[in-house]
Amino acid sequence: MRRLTAVSWIALPLAGALALSGCSSAKSTGDELQIVANPVAAGPAVSPAVSVKPAGQVLPTGSVSALAVDPATATLVVAVSEPPSLQLYDLNALASPAVNMPLYGKASRLTVSPGRVEVAEPQPGVVQQLTLPDRKLTETKVGGSPVSSLVYGDGRLVAMGAAKDIRVLPASGPARTIGGQLYSADDVVDTGKGVVVLDRLRTAVFSVDVAAGKVGEGLRAGDGAANAVADSYGRVLVTDARAGALLAFSADPLILRQRYPVPGGAYGIAYDARRSLAWVTLTGRNEVVGFDVRGGEPVEKYRFPTVRQPDSVGVDEKSGRVLVGSAAGEGTQVIQP
């Protein structure tokens, strides 16, 4: 059967199958979600050489570790690996030179809220906030290796990677930590109906009760959960890099609603709320695909050739333009569907 959709008669047996597979491995691991003794986080498939000219325009940004778009200020923010820095482009004047802003270390993830971009830098243990349009960077030293930061209420939630927890940073007062059950806290997503944390080592997602300070129920997220994003329907969309799939989980309650096959090394993901499009990069094929996710299963609307190793993707919701970053140093691609 090629497609599994969101109907309950499929979702419930699938959940049961995951639980049974977990129980069979629990004899050796003691963990109902872990299926191997020594889990390894999924990474992107290695891209072949580019055989088709990338669609759209390519900006000479170098090697990209993360990117994001602030639609409110029409700003493209590209995190460059070497030297660690941010390159800021005006989306309305891409021919103009980028503004370069040095970082302490390589950024692992950029997360946008209106007029603000959260910059997680694992190596120096720093989270920085880039405010726009004034282009001001403000640092917060959190220690450890923060891999993702999200504005939440008047504070922030920081996924602490190998520390196996989430740091809650209020606007004022002491920080607190939410942990338990996690093998790694690799991203934190606010769906509007609940907070979910992605655990790449366990290839799973967990609900998080921020007020109570608890990590709640967890579900397997395929064979190699890689990246996650919230959509407009209270769900978390997750790419499965190993099995080649796009997964959709409701957050409250945490239930797997959809599993759709996406062969070719599904990895990076971004969401266009205005058009209900999930953009997924296929690193094994040097492609980016746009899926309409409004219905019972994703519907492919667009497919474009990309730069090599398209690990990062973002979207400008105002224009619908898609931005793809090459981790192999081949620049940042701007595509108008």
From TrEMBL:
Gene3D superfamilies: YVTN repeat-like/Quinoprotein amine dehydrogenase. The keyword Signal applies. Coiled coil: none annotated. Residues 1-26 form the signal peptide. The keyword Signal applies. Keywords: Signal. PROSITE patterns: PROKAR_LIPOPROTEIN. This is DNA-binding beta-propeller fold protein YncE. It comes from Amycolatopsis australiensis. The lineage of its organism: Bacteria, Bacillati, Actinomycetota, Actinomycetes, Pseudonocardiales.
